[in-house]
Amino acid sequence: MPNKVTFGKALDDLTEDARIIGAVNTSFVRVAPDGRRIHIGTNTDCVGIRDAILNQHPSGMPAAHGKAAMVIGGGGAARSAVYALWKWFKPSEIYITNRLESEVDDIMNHFKTAIPNIRIRHIDSTDTANQIKAPHIIVGTIPDHAPAQPGEILCARICGIILRKPEKGLLVDMCYMPSPQTNLIKTAQYYGWKTIIGTDVLVRVCVAQQFLWAEEGPDERDVKQALAAVRQQPEAKIARL
Predict the structure, then answer these.
(1) Straight-line distance from the first to the last Cα atom of the chain, in angstroms, rounded to the nearest whole number
(2) CA-CA distance, 104 to 143, in Å (whole number)?
(3) Structural domain harbouring 83
(4) Is residue 85 assigned to a domain?
(5) CA torsion sign, 219 to 224 to 229 to 230?
(6) How far apart are CA 195 and CA 221, in angstroms?
(7) Nearest alpha-carbon partner for 73 in 159, 131, 170, 135
(8) pLDDT number for residue 227
(9) What is the CA radius of gyration of the chain?
(10) Which of 180, 226, 193 is nearest to 55 (CA)?
(11) Is the pLDDT of residue 139 over 70?
(12) Are 68 and 136 contacting, i.e. CB atoms less than 8 angstroms apart?
């Protein structure tokens, strides 16, 4: 981070997930038949999002089918979220809002080629946010700081409109710094949404990485211990959207 989109060019090969997402967050080594070490790039952010949801809400996948989803952000993590939602949760369409329109254009153009049948809609105004149905799942991928630039302020207002809609769903925030209790998480909880914090996603990302690096999974007791440890973080102050 923030080189998830460009880092793939430095590697020997990419997994199918990394190619489709267009972003790499993990590299691992395998040995070729001739003895060469092959550096392979993949993306475990998408697995972390999926598994964090399924471990806390086992019925979350079928419940999301055919309903809108939403991604907040425009970087590599946002691409992972779009891919995870479309591949495993099968939404009717994916809304996306972000501070920079150019990043959203890049994501939409990329996925039109990578997943031709995908449906992504840019929510670029408060009027549009007022008109759409509430998404069933929202994934946040932006830093937890007070909006200052015009694009950040607009993005925050759009999120606030969505969270205040009468229909409530699940919000996952991938951000966990400086605290997993982000402003987005607390605002969603205030308005009645179920939430999953970023450190829960991080642990599931690390589990996926252990399978690649050690070629075996961790003991589930260790996973539970890690989840308990990362949840013991100081709470951040809230300024509701």
Answers:
(1) 26
(2) 17
(3) 46-198
(4) yes
(5) positive
(6) 23
(7) 159
(8) 83
(9) 18
(10) 226
(11) yes
(12) yes
